[in-house]
Design goal:
single chain; about 140 residues; mainly alpha; elongated; DUF6069
């Protein structure tokens, strides 16, 4: 007696779980980055970049956009990669580090730059592990 695995079903449910978890993590990360920005602003850190104010909601919107791009990457990796979790974590860590570069060179004060970078790291710390747990090793 032999058993065969239904890999199509397993892949479909994995992709669905990745997307559901990714959307939930995106919502949590968006709320968290807005909270970090609001607390930073209340603490006296400027939310101006090149003289233009960044609204607190802007942190949430951009977090959502880029986190959802990460969820799409994860879904594609779940479907096509040999080691989706490892590939996703490596890719998103590199993308997170690259996302800090514009903050470092931004026309803003040191505290503002640090706050911007902190929001990137907060979002990554929420989304990457949550999504990675849903990917096959």
């Amino acid at each position: 007696m032999t058993a065969t695995a239904n890999t199509t079903h397993a892949t479909a449910s994995t992709v669905g779980a990745v997307i559901r978890t990714g959307v939930a993590a995106t919502a949590a990360a968006s709320a968290a980055t807005m909270a970090v920005a609001a607390v930073g602003h209340l603490a006296g850190i400027s939310l101006e970049l090149a003289g233009a104010p960044i609204p607190v909601t802007g942190f949430g919107v951009l977090t959502a956009v880029f986190s959802l791009i990460g969820v799409v990457i994860a879904a594609l990796l779940a479907r096509f990669a040999r080691r989706p979790r490892r590939t996703f974590v490596r890719t998103t860590v590199v993308l997170t580090v690259l996302s800090l570069v514009p903050d470092v060179i931004a026309d803003a004060g040191t505290a503002t730059k640090a706050l911007l970078m902190l929001t990137h790291l907060v979002a990554a710390a929420i989304v990457i592990p949550a999504v990675a747990r849903r990917l096959a090793v």
